[in-house]
Amino acid sequence: MSDGMQKAEHSKRTFLVVVDNSEELGKALLYVCRRAEINQGDIALLYVMNPVEFQHWVSVGDLMRAEQKEEAEEAVNAVAKLVKERIGRDPKIIIREGNPVDEVLQVIDEEPSITALVLGASANDEGPGPMVSQLTGRLVGKLHVPLIVVPGSLTEEEIYRIT
User: Fold this and answer.
1) What pLDDT score was predicted for residue 1?
2) Is 42 helix (H, G, I), strand (E, B) or coil?
3) Of 92, 110, 121, 149, which has the fewest Cβ atoms less than 10 A away?
4) How far apart, in whole angstroms, are the C-alpha atoms of residue 51 and residue 59?
């Protein structure tokens, strides 16, 4: 494939953001919306559900999975609404079940349009958060896109200044 064809296929930047209930999601979302606005890029929102491990009664496990999927859809749709209000375009929504880090890596492998992973880092003294720790540690070599870590201590003004 020629360089011109590769550029045409991947000219639109897609920023992947993991949706969870963390405080740092807000900072990552503000950062990614600013970058998408400036670069006319797209945003993909990934929500990873915990695997349902209730094996004794299949119907109970199915009910638990359905409830969890409904909660996931509500959470990611609320974030998608904020993104649409901010950049004027709907984000791509991806809902998976499994280990969050494994699912992030798999989505990046499966979606060639994703050009960056944006995560928020916790501002507390307990560390940046489990996903940031894992993806900047032993798993960093498995990433095929840049990892952008948005410090949770940044103010909105600081995020505007650096984007």
Assistant:
1) 42
2) strand
3) 110
4) 15
